[in-house]
Design goal:
about 25% strand; eight-stranded antiparallel beta barrel; five-stranded antiparallel β-sheet; 9 helices; Transferase(Phosphotransferase), domain 1; 19 strands; alpha+beta; Phosphorylase Kinase, domain 1; Lipocalin
Length: about 450
């Protein structure tokens, strides 16, 4: 019995560092969901403290939003050294599970996306940016309605202490992440959630990854599986520049339901709690307006520096030198992501891969040939050619945290890090190969003294 009232039942799911259980609230006789930090996760004490803070941040954010499409929080507590949160139980599973189960009717996809957008509008009105909207974080209740969950990395304006992301660090799920969030998760606006909602709608309807969806124009082959009426909605929501997306979550909701409506299909009715749209969708260009240029400005952050400019100069194979060297932070002109591919589209590919960097905090474990398992935490920052940071382990000789440096190769999604020797302890080389979504990795750690390499996994 947890907290004197919750009887813990079956495990419902496990994420990277958290586990969710079904519990029975014996006080009022209802079923709830219990979320706790996974005690078996390979994370050190510092990382565990950070995760406890995020769990409480999530509870605070969700408790502020009394909204029918946000999972309700009922209780928080701490017992036997771990923290827990009790919330509504969504009997219908996640939207991701529903997508895997079979084709989702367009009407359902539109209705669920509209409900998520209502939840986001409520969050944005409270100064909260979710930062991790994706099918895995949308739950379906027993009545077939969507509920937005997992505010664990939400950005909350009024509470500086909850801004747990350092400047220049990406945070979220890469495939659903807006371009500006990949650069700096701390500086994002509600436009990043609009992007993620558009990426989620795309995946629900196509079962395809929305990775770099900002590169697709309305006539791109990637959108061929979308209903024609919804292509403009997806393209507008996932534009590269935040100011060219819908002005608010409710503006996107209005455009979505208008696009879906037809003589045979009535518009999706808003929830009772949904206020009128705060701003209209972006205005269409008048017929006599000057045509838009075939490029869009992109300003790289100062930490990218000359390294990215050099990478762009060298990476365009066969196309000549298409970009000139420039001072750090000055505008770089590239083809607009919505335009049709051209001979210079390799520049766009370079831009897309340059933004996808495995930076931030990663947890994993290494296993020696003898079967010894050692958890570790990587804390990485920097740029493509100059990844720097530290690795923390529980080595008994006292060298628990050591510096690492190296480079990331986008073409093979390989991160190579060098760990120097320290007195009484050997260093080595970390070689980590990431999956397509940059969500997990496998690889090895090769000690400098020539001993057999350890296998490495993490995410």
């Amino acid at each position: 019995m947890l907290g004197g009232r919750y009887l813990v039942g079956e495990r419902l799911g496990r994420g990277g560092v958290a586990v969710v259980y079904r519990v029975e609230d014996r006080t009022i006789g209802v079923q709830r969901a219990l979320k706790v930090i996974d005690q078996g996760a390979h994370i050190d004490a510092l990382a565990r403290d950070a995760l406890r803070g995020r769990l409480h941040s999530e509870a605070q954010a969700m408790a502020r939003l009394k909204h029918p499409h946000v999972v309700a929080i009922h209780d928080v507590g701490e017992e036997d050294g771990f923290d827990w949160v009790v919330m509504d139980l969504a009997d219908g599973g996640t939207l991701a599970e529903r997508v895997e189960a079979g084709a989702v009717p367009v009407a359902d996809a539109v209705r669920w996306t509209a409900q998520v957008l209502e939840a986001l509008a409520a969050a944005h009105a409270e100064g909260i940016v979710h930062r991790d909207v994706k099918p895995q974080n949308v739950l379906l209740d027993r009545y077939g309605n969507a509920q937005l969950a997992d505010f664990g990395i939400a950005l909350i304006d009024s509470e500086v202490a909850l801004r747990s992301t350092r400047t220049g660090t990406a945070m979220g799920s890469l495939a659903y992440m807006a371009p500006e969030q990949r650069m700096d998760a701390r500086g994002v606006t509600p436009a990043a959630d609009v992007y993620a909602a558009g990426a989620t709608l795309y995946h629900v309807l196509t079962k395809k990854s929305p990775m770099d969806l900002f590169m697709a124009g309305e006539h791109s082959d990637r959108l061929a599986d979308l209903p024609l009426a919804l292509r403009t909605v997806v393209v507008t929501a996932t534009r590269y520049e935040p100011q060219r997306r819908y002005g608010s979550a409710l503006a996107m909701r209005a455009a979505l339901t208008d696009a879906f409506a037809s003589p045979d299909e009535p518009p999706v009715a808003p929830s009772a709690s949904a206020p009128a749209p705060a701003s209209p969708p972006p205005a269409t260009r008048p017929a006599d307006a000057s045509p838009e240029p075939d490029y869009a400005p992109a300003v790289w952050p100062t930490w990218a520096g000359w390294a990215v400019a050099a990478a762009l100069l060298l990476a365009v194979g066969g196309g000549g030198l298409l970009v000139a060297a420039r001072p750090t932070g000055s505008p770089l002109r590239v083809r607009a992501p919505g335009a049709e591919p051209s001979a210079t589209s390799s520049v766009d590919r370079v831009l897309a891969t340059a933004m996808a960097r495995p930076l931030g905090i990663w947890h994993g474990s290494s296993t020696s040939p003898a079967g010894h398992n050692e958890p570790f935490t990587l804390d990485l920052a920097g740029s493509l050619d100059q990844v720097t940071g530290s690795v923390r382990t529980r080595r008994a000789n006292g060298h628990g945290e050591r510096p690492v440096s190296g480079r990331y190769t986008p073409a093979t999604r390989t991160l190579t890090l060098s760990e120097p020797d320290v007195p009484g302890d050997r260093g080595g080389t970390w070689t980590l190969v990431f999956d397509d979504a940059l969500a997990s990795f496998t690889g090895r750690f090769q000690p400098n003294d020539g001993l057999p390499a350890a296998t490495v996994t993490g995410g």
